[in-house]
Amino acid sequence: MAEVFDVVFIGGGPGGYTGAIRAAQLGLNTAVIEKDPTLGGTCLNVGCIPSKALLDSSEHFHMAKHDFASHGVKVSQVDLDLPAMMARKQKIVSDLTGGIEFLFKKNKVTHIRGKGRLISSDKIEVTTSEGTKQVVSTKNVVLATGSVPNEPPGLKFDGKKIISSTEALSLPKVPKHLIVVGGGVIGLELGSVWLRLGAEVSVIEYGNNICGSMDTGMTKRLAQILKKQGMKFYFESKVTGASIKGDDVTVQFENLKDSQQTSLTGDMVLVATGRRPYSEGLGLDSVGIKPDKRGMVEVDDHFRTSSKNVYAIGDLIRGPMLAHKAEEEGVAVAEILAGKPGHVNYEACPGVVYTWPELASVGATEEQLKTSGTDYASGSFPFSPNGRAKAMGFTEGQVKILADKRTDRILGVHILGPRASDMIAEAVIAMEFGGAAEDLARSFHAHPTLSEVVREAALAVDKRARQM
Prior knowledge:
With 468 residues, this protein is an alpha/beta fold. The chain has three domains: 4-149 and 276-344, FAD/NAD(P)-binding domain (3-Layer(bba) Sandwich); 162-273, FAD/NAD(P)-binding domain, CATH 3.50.50.60; 348-461, Enolase-like, domain 1 (2-Layer Sandwich), CATH 3.30.390.30. Helices cover 32% and strands 25% of the residues. It contains 13 helices and 24 strands. The protein has helices at residues 14-25, 41-46, 48-66, 82-107, 165-168, 185-196, 216-229, 323-337, 366-372, 387-392, 420-432, 437-441, 452-461; strands at residues 4-5, 7-10, 30-34, 110-113, 115-120, 123-127, 133-138, 141-143, 147-149, 162-163, 177-181, 200-204, 232-234, 237-245, 248-255, 261-266, 268-271, 275-277, 310-312, 351-353, 358-363, 376-382, 398-404, 410-417. The strands form six sheets. A five-stranded parallel beta sheet has the order 4-3-2-8-19, covered by helices on one side. The chain is globular. The protein starts with a strand and ends in a 7-residue tail after the last helix.
């Protein structure tokens, strides 16, 4: 008799591999079907990890050229070795994807290579890259296939001149002028990489600000800082098309306020207009699942789809397209299938923009609280007087804490500053435990540290910040 798994995850990205490991730990006979040669999905292979490797490398390069002298470190000549930078990035990716293979073996998770397609709610057809097929039987299926770059009309990817984030992570040379369509996280991060390495970078954004879903005050301040760094912005602009001539590519766009037609010419266009769920070819119709026009799958509060024993997580379902969100959902499904109370607290899910300075947020923005009619108090504190920030030489930005005016419970925390991505964890934990601004204000924070700014912002909620 052919083996019947307790659960099969289709997709080996953060949601799939993390959920599978947890399911195996809970005693479920578990398999993961992955179409790509390596595990880890977009995040590890062509997303979170390689982009952060390049962001760190480009940051070092920029500091060596512009910041070391102020620290008394004189460098006579700084040269860019782009192939070495790319090789470092790829080694980091390889180490991490290989690490997942090790974890699968350690936890006895079966790795099935190929593209999975539902035949029924308990059978999956797997097609390998060579075209051979096999049928996998399972009691439960978890769809965890992630997302792919959105390709808007008039900006068809050619992989050379009009590129997605995937190609932008492996360019063979620094562009002279990189035109970025979209002022969201992906566009700003990859734009920052190539700006630091010497490219001219222009960002065309449909809205009137960058990172539209985040706190408006913080994003406007970040835009100002990025402008000082040399990034150019064209807001409220609708791209109408692009044309390639020789080594140049020209992007046409329309100003939404006055309908004025404008064009920009560069040697490369990065299309960073978001991502869409990757649900094509999954055989959803064979089990009665009807995705929406974007490809998103509807689930209930326990991640169940309309088909019996078929679940979906990550970028396929509602919510932010974030690796850590998918991981928590994968673990929650595994625990539900093992008879445990799996749960995800979306109110404590942080988001980060890894520019410099970084922008990190968790919980509600001021705009959301005003819209909902919530009575709140706000406390802010800048990095400029912070001793550690001064010692580092990075004093741009601030921390903002929003708390319920009646109960003082923390509703949202927004950090624009150095290493905000690490500092936001304190706020996440406080919110997970239902903490108040007073809790942060009365907690020890080592001196001198960047996190003292969080404490001062918490004190400022009650109008008693001490360092200003």
